[in-house]
Amino acid sequence: MGALSRQPIRMFLDLKAQLEENRRNKAHVPEVPETGMAVLRQQFALAETIEAWIAELKKRFQRLPSRQTNRAARTGREREKRRLHSGLAVV
Questions:
Q1: SS3 readout for the chain
Q2: Of 12, 20, 37, 86, which sits with the fewest C-beta atoms within 10 Å of its C-beta?
Q3: Backbone torsion region of residue 20, taken as left when φ is above 0, otherwise alpha when ψ lies between -120 and 50, otherwise beta
Q4: Is 16 exposed, middle or buried (0-12, 13-18, 19+ CB in 10 A)?
Q5: How far is CA 72 from CA 48, 68, 76, 89, in A?
Q6: Which of 74, 57, 80 has the alpha carbon at shortest distance from 5?
Q7: What's the angle, vertex CA 30, arms to CA 24 and CA 34, rounded to 5?
Q8: pTM of this structure
Q9: 36-57: string of b/e by CB count within 10 Å (b at 16+)?
């Protein structure tokens, strides 16, 4: 599953590299209209913004506890509730 979930990010970075290469190749070509260059700059700026957003999401998810930890905590709380409601609680 991990390899599959990394594919969209890898494809996005490939797209960003293609945009940068396209922008560099057309930067000094007089036949390319200024409007076209503006669109290329906007696309690249958008790609950089999305890249920063992805990096921020990765940081946030790395700081979250794992699902297994959450499940263990939830199971422990549920077990405690059942124990208290069953009258087996020691006071």
A1: CHHHHHHHHHHHHHHHHHHHHHHHHHCCCCCCCHHHHHHHHHHHHHHHHHHHHHHHHHHHHHHCCCHHHHHHHHHHHHHHHHHHHCCCCCC
A2: 86
A3: alpha
A4: middle
A5: 38, 6, 6, 21
A6: 57
A7: 75
A8: 0.57
A9: eeeebeebeeebeeeeeeeeee
Cα radius of gyration (the chain): 25
Question: What's the Cα-to-Cα distance from 84 to each of 66, 70, 72, 75, 80, rounded to whole Å?
Answer: 27, 21, 18, 14, 6
The structure tokens 């998810």 sit at 61
| Amino acid occupying residue 58 | K
Length of the chain: 91
